[in-house]
């Protein structure tokens, strides 16, 4: 299991959510002292993709009869991939809502 990668991805996503809510976040600063939101988002999506690919690989390997893994590890990896994907969807929904709110503001 690569729980370090999941924890890192969750930390980045929580930092992005905190930044969007106006709270200070523990994210890597850019040269101008702010957070590079595009990079944080891109890294988060890459981590989710990597988690899903790893889980699918484990499931395919288990289904093929590979004796290296057991069903518990496969199920845990699939659940981690599902949870990280659902969290990414929730972040996307929040970003879309925030964008719509900004676009509906009257100046």
UniProtKB/TrEMBL annotation:
One of its GO terms (cellular component) is bacterial-type flagellum basal body. PANTHER family: FLAGELLAR HOOK-BASAL BODY COMPLEX PROTEIN FLIE (PTHR34653:SF1), PTHR34653. GO terms for biological process: bacterial-type flagellum-dependent cell motility. Belongs to the FliE family. This is Flagellar hook-basal body complex protein FliE. The keyword Repressor does not apply. Keywords: Bacterial flagellum, Cell projection, Cilium, Flagellum. It comes from Rhodocyclus tenuis (Rhodospirillum tenue). It holds the Pfam family FliE. GO terms for molecular function: cytoskeletal motor activity; structural molecule activity. HAMAP family: FliE (MF_00724). It is found in: Bacterial flagellum basal body. Its main location: other.
């Amino acid at each position: 299991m690569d729980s370090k990668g999941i924890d890192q991805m969750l930390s980045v996503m929580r930092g992005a959510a905190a930044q969007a809510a106006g709270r200070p976040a523990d994210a890597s600063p850019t040269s101008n002292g702010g957070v590079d939101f595009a990079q944080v988002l891109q890294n988060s999506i890459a981590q989710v993709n990597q988690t899903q690919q790893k889980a699918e690989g484990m499931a395919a390997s288990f289904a093929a009869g590979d004796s290296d893994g057991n069903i518990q590890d496969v199920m845990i990896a699939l659940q981690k991939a599902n949870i990280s994907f659902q969290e990414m969807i929730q972040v996307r929904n929040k970003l879309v809502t925030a964008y719509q709110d900004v676009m509906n503001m009257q100046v």
